[in-house]
Design a protein that fits this description.
single chain, alpha/beta, two-stranded antiparallel sheet, 221 residues, binds 5-O-phosphono-beta-D-ribofuranosylamine, 33% helix, Rossmann fold
Length: 221
């Protein structure tokens, strides 16, 4: 395509799933407002009524739905509810931002290669079940690796195991505590998540088996 003639893709319609503070969710909303991300957040789904993410969503008038075991004890009803909400919002892309629950395989299939997760380490190291929050950074420091980082990956039916979209390296310092490392990594998460989502918004991602290829941006070269 000739420079200057690119057609802008329609904005991604993102549903964000978050269970906690929601700093990544906030960073995504900020990126949209700053014009760095061609997307709209159509809504937030949380399993935790006390999530900070909900307070932020409400402050931005972003629709919120709480779907959890307490409200939907029946697993299939729980998952049907989520699917129904996603359809209602005309979602075409899903962002997991600290969502502490496995996504049902039916949803993974329906949104194949269109669900992203962010993990605060360099996968496949320090990932998998039980590796969340400070546990990740404790394990990294205890092991003694000199570098950790961030991984954005496509979600499949295993914990932290889908194809890797982007990674960023963050040094582990001698005097790091799990908390200080977490903070340094979180800053990087806020940058890299937007970058990864924008690649999808620009249709520059191809997935082949486990490998994710990013098409170069000719306009910038
Ligand atoms: C982040 O560290 C992310 O990598 C992990 O969960 C944490 C969520 O943090 N998946 P926040 O709620 O976005 O602040």
């Amino acid at each position: 395509m000739v420079r200057g003639q690119q057609q802008k893709n329609p904005p991604l319609r993102l549903a964000v799933f978050a269970s906690g503070t929601g700093s990544n969710f906030r960073a995504i909303v900020d990126s949209i407002e700053d014009g760095k991300l061609n997307a709209v957040v159509v809504g937030l789904i949380s399993n935790n009524p006390d999530a900070g993410a909900i307070v932020f969503a409400e402050s931005k008038q972003i629709p919120c739905e709480i779907v959890n075991k307490k409200r939907y004890p029946d697993e299939s009803e729980h998952d049907a509810k989520i699917l129904n909400i996603l359809e209602q919002w005309k979602t075409n892309f899903i962002i997991l931002a600290g969502y502490m629950k496995m996504i049902n395989p039916l949803i993974v299939e329906k949104y194949k290669n269109r669900i992203l997760n962010i993990h605060p380490a360099l996968l496949p190291s320090f990932g998998g079940k039980g590796m969340y929050g400070l546990h990740v950074h404790e394990a990294v420091i205890e092991y003694g690796v000199k570098f950790s980082g961030v991984t954005v990956h496509i979600v499949n039916n295993e914990y932290d195991a889908g194809p890797v979209v982007l990674q960023r390296v963050v040094p582990v310092l001698d005097d790091d505590t799990p908390q200080s490392l977490q903070q340094r990594i979180l800053k990087e998460e806020h940058i890299i998540y937007t970058e990864a989502i924008q690649l999808f918004a620009e249709n520059r991602i191809t997935v082949s088996g486990r490998r994710v290829f990013v098409q170069r941006d000719h306009a910038k070269n």
